[in-house]
Amino acid sequence: MSQKHTDSDSQIMTGDLYQELPTNGSQYVESLSHDSRELNDIEIQPFFPNHSHSALSVAEAIVLMLTKLGVSSAFGVAGGAMASLWNALSNSSMQVLNFRHEAGAAFAAIEAHFASNHPTVVFTTAGPGMTNALTGLFAARGEGAKVILLSACTSAPQRGRWAIQETSTYTLPSGGMFTPGALFNYAITIESAAQLPQIFRKLALGLAQPGGFVAHLSIPTGVQTSLVEDISWPQLDVAAYRVTAHKDKIAKSAKLLFSEPFAIWVGFGARNAAKEIRLLAEKTGAAVICSPRGKGIFPEDHPQFVGVTGLGGDASVITYMEEQPPSRILVLGTRLGEPTSFWSPTMVPAKGFVHVDIDPEVPGVAYPYANTFSIQSDIKTYLQELGQHFPETPRFSVVSLPRPQIEAIATGVGESVRPEVLMAAIQKIIVEGSDAIVLAECGNSFTWSTHYLRFTEPNRYRVSTGVGAMGHAATGVVGAAQARKGTAVAIVGDGAMLMNNEINTAVKYKIPAIWIVLNDARYNMCYQGMKILGLKGADAEIPPTNFVMVARGMGADGIVVQRESDLEAALKEAIASQTPFVVDVIIDGDRPAPSGARNKSLAAQGVKLNGNGNGKPTTTKHVSFPLV
């Protein structure tokens, strides 16, 4: 039962999600068995005590269904077409957060899922309500989150008659929006209460599987208020299960890895296997590298950690691959896509990859020419099985490995804050001085944060490398803080803050979200990228904005930072604040975003950069940012 069309850098989920569910709903027990990809032996038992549910509307029954599946929070924007559904949500045990934009609600739902390890709900009204949410749901699928969309649609008698915000096959394509496909793992339009038991079963099975699960329940306005009568509600005794390979295949992978020096490439999909990865590395002496989303799963201060690969990564990784190349690399929970590898041939070891993923279509895709031994399994289970084959004594001594190096920050004071100085302050006050989750927005915020910040524990750093939508962190930070009931910090650009933020929502619900804005009055990745490409005339500038005035106008607090000497005090004030807080940092937009391994990777792909200091390519081969 494989997960397809998702970013496997975010695939791996153990059964932990269901171990904390209340026992008055479904009782979930973690299951571990070989080749356990089929769930044909599901036992269906009574879901509720056998009494009449004639007082329940369809909307109320759906909400009750979702609470039984462990959903405790819902994010969305209401509207007339889903008034009954909104009312049912609002009178349930869920915390319902009313957002200002549906995309922001979806991004918040993603981050709430990852912060809580529980499935979340996004709710929207008809027409633009649903289409506004699609970018966030696209990201949910790519990130491997467990999110369920509840949307309103036009009732059958009114379809094709130009109803207000008509949502039907007359106005929208049905394929992929109301049916399973690339966007939704499961999607259905509910036309009758009689469908609910089967829908409950589908959702339970989908949420029990490892990896992400994005579902869409489209509910016509008229159906929401119809009554649920004479339905036998099931209780599905579904075990949250793990996928693992046959013992012989695991034994073969052990022989391939332990016969010669190997390295470990850690992705976001391995986030629940931090202890097992560290044990494997220390037992074998293997060097460890990670994807940008994998930061912190293996401690970045560990002597066997070589660096971060890909966008914003460390040049030490390329140095290692050139000077001390391993025979093989064990890839755990990453697709090795462009932001993680740049598809650089330098990253291909002489004897290829042992690639572990729950999606059998992932191994071999990024490097189709490389020798790849594929294993379909979740990471934690695979490593536990692999541990039975550890050599009695380490086969390879730990040699001196290249280590990530933070470039020395020159002394001096400019007219604005250098981004690298800001990152050093964030490292000290936020990363090391608090337990806050840190989210980095796409663009230069991503590269500065990924390159300069160092994490020693998993699940504290979140970036999106698949969809990379602007506004993901600026709104997702609200969901992360709400779910963990603690501080979450978003490092964002001014463009993303202007595009989509939920400061007002954080104020309404007293959510301890912090925004650190890299304010340079530009879409700076675009500005710098076009300059490096030697392309002129494109306008990437933004009129200067005072985000503290914006924040205070919404009821939050904030501080503008123009001098580097004020950074630490401002960040301490933000962490101590009892209200949502914006730190508006006027940065030097001319400081080049960190390249590090990127230029070496490009050179390995045949892209030549001249040496006159302006970074302009001397080849006619087209290059696009952010790869430059």
UniProtKB/TrEMBL annotation:
<feature type="region of interest" description="Disordered">
    <location>
        <begin position="607"/>
        <end position="628"/>
    </location>
</feature>
<keyword id="KW-0786">Thiamine pyrophosphate</keyword>
<dbReference type="InterPro" id="IPR029061">
    <property type="entry name" value="THDP-binding"/>
</dbReference>
<dbReference type="InterPro" id="IPR029035">
    <property type="entry name" value="DHS-like_NAD/FAD-binding_dom"/>
</dbReference>
<dbReference type="InterPro" id="IPR012001">
    <property type="entry name" value="Thiamin_PyroP_enz_TPP-bd_dom"/>
</dbReference>
<dbReference type="Pfam" id="PF02776">
    <property type="entry name" value="TPP_enzyme_N"/>
</dbReference>
<feature type="domain" description="Thiamine pyrophosphate enzyme central">
    <location>
        <begin position="263"/>
        <end position="386"/>
    </location>
</feature>
<dbReference type="InterPro" id="IPR011766">
    <property type="entry name" value="TPP_enzyme_TPP-bd"/>
</dbReference>
<protein>
    <submittedName>
        <fullName>Scytonemin biosynthesis protein ScyA</fullName>
    </submittedName>
</protein>
<feature type="domain" description="Thiamine pyrophosphate enzyme N-terminal TPP-binding">
    <location>
        <begin position="57"/>
        <end position="167"/>
    </location>
</feature>
<dbReference type="InterPro" id="IPR045229">
    <property type="entry name" value="TPP_enz"/>
</dbReference>
<dbReference type="Pfam" id="PF00205">
    <property type="entry name" value="TPP_enzyme_M"/>
</dbReference>
<comment type="similarity">
    <text>Belongs to the TPP enzyme family.</text>
</comment>
<dbReference type="InterPro" id="IPR012000">
    <property type="entry name" value="Thiamin_PyroP_enz_cen_dom"/>
</dbReference>
<feature type="domain" description="Thiamine pyrophosphate enzyme TPP-binding">
    <location>
        <begin position="442"/>
        <end position="585"/>
    </location>
</feature>
<dbReference type="Pfam" id="PF02775">
    <property type="entry name" value="TPP_enzyme_C"/>
</dbReference>
